[in-house]
Design goal:
The complex is a heterodimer.
Chain A: E1 21-24, E2 29-40, H1 52-57, E3 64-69, E4 75-81, H2 94-111, E5 115-121, E6 130-134, H3 138-148, E7 173-178, H4 184-193, E8 198-204, E9 217-223, E10 229-234, H5 236-259, E11 265-267, H6 273-283
Chain B: E1 2-3, E2 27-29, H1 39-64, E3 66-67, E4 71-79, E5 81-87, H2 109-123, E6 128-134, E7 138-145, H3 148-158, H4 168-178, E8 188-194, H5 202-214, E9 218-224, H6 247-256, E10 262-267, H7 270-283, E11 286-294, H8 300-319
Parallel strand pairs in B: 5-6, 5-8, 8-9, 9-10
Antiparallel strand pairs in B: 1-3, 4-11, 6-7
The chains are: A alpha/beta, B alpha/beta.
């Protein structure tokens, strides 16, 4: 069951460069708890932070001030795949599921008072599906709501390769929601362009794609993106093969993402926020 | 191969439709590259398209109603090629001269004749019969044929109202014409059934004689004698006032000069007519080779059945089709 108020806890394992106060480690000097070093009162004229012990110890009798790093906000971007294959789904389309996930991410990000943006991509990146980074992410919420009812036909994922152009220079936490039904080469190209950011690939698969296939029968299928038709004569041998293929695909995706140090998060039935929290605790040690 | 409606064949290219239009029942799948389409699946899918193509093709063919050419079969049998020359003059509607006196109204001559002739052909199997009737002129009814129904219908049709004249010459020349365009089976005969006779002029006599000779046609003459009429077999017939023999006798004398076989019968009542016909029946029994036209076979039912069977096959495959993914 999807709870619209659900959220998870996340953190980053690098120092944010943001000025805006937030809850992540930062390189910015300010009103934080993290001790960064000492400075001269003349250089850093903050009499509240005068370090008396250090001042007494100095033979040159200079007045020393303690410097701390503040905690800053970090930019977070939600990227969702708008290609036609995401229209697949029996009870819920993958668009609906990704909208739900995006909603939970939005909750979590606002709770941490980070800046949030949204980019939807299919063949290209349409400004209609673009929400700039903001601490008050109204547009993002609007697009997430719009995603729920989105329908798409004959569009693919080519925009993913150009998505890094849309990002700021600062290291960004990216939630990339897609089924990743695309050639590995394309994924690698996209990840290479995103390598200076931190990507959390959320792999949306539907169990019905490979798990509950009928044991016997004829299956007419049409590819959601290319519209190519084919007939499949299902037998035990074939269903086993499809299952095995998806298992191999999962492994391949995992290996590919780990090569870029972007551990993937697989979603097959429901998105569980606790698992997402665990994901950050597991991979993003501070 | 012929077609009743060849224009329908214009639709034949439509049978390729399954290769162009999309399937109607299908499941959208996210990424078909993940599905392993094996050779069996490919064959099944191709089989689907080919079978549907064949079904549409057969249905269009069925609509055009193809049929085979008619065939001509040579058959062997016993019988003869018989030309039936029937008198249709009004006097044929009179009762017989003899007949049963007990019966108040006897059978008319034409009715008895057609009844007995129909019986005659019923008892024979392989005759080819042509029918000519004549009164004031010859009427061509039926070419030489094997069809019993046609023969019966033609004979039955002769019993009816008619004119008063008896133009035997025209009837005989027409009957000779029946044989001109048909191969001689070895046994050819003309049965001339008349009451009384008419005179035939010398020119026509010559022609008849020549043709009967040329086409080797035997002649059986059945005379239905009128009450109190002169018998053709009578000797010393009294001459007419104008010193002529009575027409029957003159005709009899003329027929006797034929080179081809000739036999005359005189019938006074249905029984003697029957006797005469039985006699002919016995004489004309020679092997005969004849051609029979067999109408061309209709292919439409067969084509329809084939397409039905193929459709049932597709229906079966439809039953094992997966309606939707779970």
């Amino acid at each position: 069951m999807h709870n619209p108020l659900d959220s998870f806890s996340y953190h980053i394992n690098w120092k944010s460069r943001g000025h805006h106060p937030g809850q992540h480690k930062s390189g910015q000097r300010g009103m934080g708890m993290e001790f960064a070093g000492h400075s001269n009162l003349l250089d850093y004229p903050d009499p509240r932070r005068i370090d008396i012990r250090q001042t007494i110890r100095d033979p040159l009798e200079q007045v020393h001030v303690r410097i701390f790093n503040q905690r800053s906000a970090t930019p977070v971007i939600i990227m969702t795949d708008l290609s036609s294959s995401m229209g697949y789904g029996l009870k819920k389309t993958k668009f609906e599921v990704s909208s739900e996930i995006a909603e939970i991410i939005t909750n979590s990000v606002t709770a941490k008072s980070d800046a949030l943006g949204f980019i939807g991509f299919n063949d290209k990146i349409n400004s209609e599906w673009l929400a700039p980074l903001s601490y008050k992410p109204y547009r993002t919420k609007l697009l997430v709501e719009k995603l729920k009812k989105y329908k798409s036909k004959n569009s693919s994922h080519a925009g993913l390769m150009k998505i890094s152009d849309m990002l700021a220079k600062d290291r960004t936490l990216i939630f990339l929601i897609s089924d990743f039904h695309m050639p590995i080469g394309d994924i690698e190209e996209a990840l290479t362009s995103l390598v200076k950011h931190q990507v959390v690939p959320i792999v949306l698969w539907n169990k019905s794609e490979f798990d509950n296939l009928p044991k016997f029968g004829l299956l007419n299928i049409e590819d959601a993106e290319t519209g190519k038709e084919s007939t499949l004569f299902l037998r035990e041998k074939i269903t086993k093969k499809i299952k095995a293929d998806f298992k191999a695909r999962k492994k391949l995706l995992k290996d590919t993402f780990l090569k870029y140090n972007f551990p993937p998060f697989f979603v097959e039935d429901d998105f569980k926020s606790l698992e997402m929290t665990n994901y950050f605790n597991e991979y993003f040690y501070a | 191969m012929n077609f009743v409606y060849p224009l329908v064949l214009i639709l034949l290219p439509l049978s390729l439709i399954p290769f162009f239009i999309n399937q109607t029942s299908k499941n959208i799948y996210s990424w078909s590259e993940m599905l392993h389409i094996d050779i069996v699946s490919r064959i099944v899918s191709l089989f689907f398209k080919i079978v549907s193509t064949i079904i549409i093709f057969l249905i269009i063919l069925t609509l055009s109603e193809p049929y085979a050419d008619q065939k001509i079969i040579l058959k062997k049998g016993k019988g003869a090629q018989i030309g039936l020359v029937l008198d249709r003059s009004a006097s044929m509607d009179d009762p017989f001269a003899g007949g049963d006196n007990n019966e108040s109204v006897g059978e008319t001559k034409s009715a008895a004749a057609s009844r007995l002739i129909v019986d005659f052909f019923d008892s024979r199997t392989d005759d080819m019969v042509g029918v000519i009737t004549f009164s004031n002129s010859a009427m061509f009814i039926l070419p030489l044929t094997h069809s019993k129904e046609a023969i019966k219908a033609a004979v039955n049709a002769t019993a009816g109202n008619a004119l008063f004249q008896t133009n035997i010459g025209a009837g005989l020349t027409s009957s000779a014409e029946l044989f001109t365009s048909i191969e001689n089976s070895g046994s050819r005969a003309v049965i001339l059934l008349s009451d009384g006779a008419g005179r035939i002029d010398a020119k026509t006599q010559q022609k008849i004689k020549e043709w009967f000779d040329k086409y080797q046609i035997g002649l059986y003459w059945i005379v239905l004698r009128q009450p109190g009429g002169i018998s053709i077999f009578e000797e010393d017939v009294p001459l007419h006032q104008d010193y002529q023999l009575p027409p029957q006798v003159e005709l009899y004398e003329f027929f006797k000069t034929f080179k081809s076989p000739f036999q005359a019968y005189e019938a006074e009542d249905p029984k003697s007519l029957e006797q005469a016909i039985k006699d002919i029946n016995l004489k004309e029994r020679k092997p005969i080779i004849y051609e029979e036209k067999v109408p061309g076979e209709k292919y439409a039912p067969m084509l329809l059945l084939t397409s039905l069977i193929l459709s049932l096959m597709l229906l079966f495959l439809k039953f094992i089709e997966v309606k939707s993914l779970k």
